[in-house]
Specification:
By secondary structure, the chain is of the alpha+beta class. It has a single domain, classed as OB fold (Dihydrolipoamide Acetyltransferase, E2P) (Beta Barrel), CATH 2.40.50. Strands 3-2-1-4-5 form a 5-stranded antiparallel beta sheet. The radius of gyration is 13 Å and the shape is elongated.
Length: 70
């Protein structure tokens, strides 16, 4: 399952699924240096950073912002 980090606060990552469900995960259970907007892949209770999906989403968001304000 994929999760998107909505925000980081007080050692916790508030994540959202593609179905807009939210979960809270201790940052200590995530890969180092994660940040808001990163996409995580969860398998067997372990989280890994999906860099390809993260980059894709960031490019899409940048394009949307440029279309809106550019």
């Amino acid at each position: 399952m994929k999760y998107i980090i909505d925000r980081l606060e007080e050692g916790l990552a508030i994540c959202e699924t593609e179905a807009r469900e939210r979960i809270t995960v201790p940052v200590s259970h995530l890969p180092e240096n994660v940040k808001e907007g990163d996409v995580l892949q969860a398998e067997d209770g372990l989280f890994s950073l999906d860099t390809e999906e993260t980059d894709k989403r960031r490019k899409e968001m940048k394009k949307k912002l440029m279309d809106l304000f550019g």
